Amino acid sequence: MPDKITVLLADDHSLVRRGFRRMLEDDPAIEVVGEAGDGEEVIALASQLGPRVIVMDCAMPKTSGLDATRRILAASPGVAILMLSMHTEQTQALEAGARGYILKSAIDLDLASAVKRVAAGETVVDAALEDRTTSDGERRHGLTARELEVLQLICDGMSNKEIATRLDLSANTVSVHRTNIMNTLGVHKAAELVMYAMRNGLVKLP
């Protein structure tokens, strides 16, 4: 049997964490390895437990989910973070490096499926937000507007550091975007990425 997907839950409401734990542990492929009630705790537990996926509430005490996401990915870029919120900070969450964003209010929330998808390298966005995402910038081949922007600059020959300066992001955030882009498109080398982007019209040629 393949290794289980280890998950760390981060939400400041214990009842919410309990509900999420039940939803996830109904799936035999998933194991919840820890729970955190604030941003500082989730940062510490992420380092101690090394989960594959962190289900992160966007609004938490001490340190927000967005800031916690940035700090965790700076230390562990391989972890997949699935952001949950009552609100619509979708763009900020994805720019912080989260691999998915889901509204807690979604009636048909399938948390286990979302966890599996981000663990597999997919970018997951709540269906209720797809129209908003499309209006902000068309999602092509599963990429967000920000990922398409990063992809264009990669194809323009810029380094992660140069892209970070251009977009006012950290170099680590750009690195996470690059990894997510490659995972989403199923390519593993920079040259393959550029060819794929050109062939499929994802970037403007110089």
Characterise the protein shown here.
- With 206 residues, the protein is α/β, with parallel strands linked by helices.
- It contains 10 helices and 6 strands; from the N terminus they run E-H-E-H-E-H-E-H-E-H-E-H-H-H-H-H.
- The protein has a 6-stranded parallel sheet with strand order 2-1-3-4-5-6, with helices on both faces.
- The longest helix has 15 residues, at 171-185.
- It is globular, with a radius of gyration of 17 Å.
Trace the largest sheet across and list its strands. 2-1-3-4-5-6
Largest sheet: 6 strands, parallel
**Shape descriptor:** globular
Put simply, the count of helices is: 10
Summarize the structure.
The chain is an alpha/beta fold and 206 residues long. The longest helix is centred in the last third of the chain and has 15 residues, at 171-185.
Name the features:
single chain, 206 residues, six-stranded parallel sheet, 10 helices, 6 strands
Question: What secondary-structure arrangement, pairings included, does this model have?
Answer:
Blueprint: E1 5-10, H1 14-25, E2 30-36, H2 39-49, E3 53-57, H3 65-75, E4 80-85, H4 90-95, E5 100-103, H5 111-119, E6 124-125, H6 130-136, H7 145-155, H8 160-167, H9 171-185, H10 190-199
Parallel strand pairs: 1-2, 1-3, 3-4, 4-5, 5-6
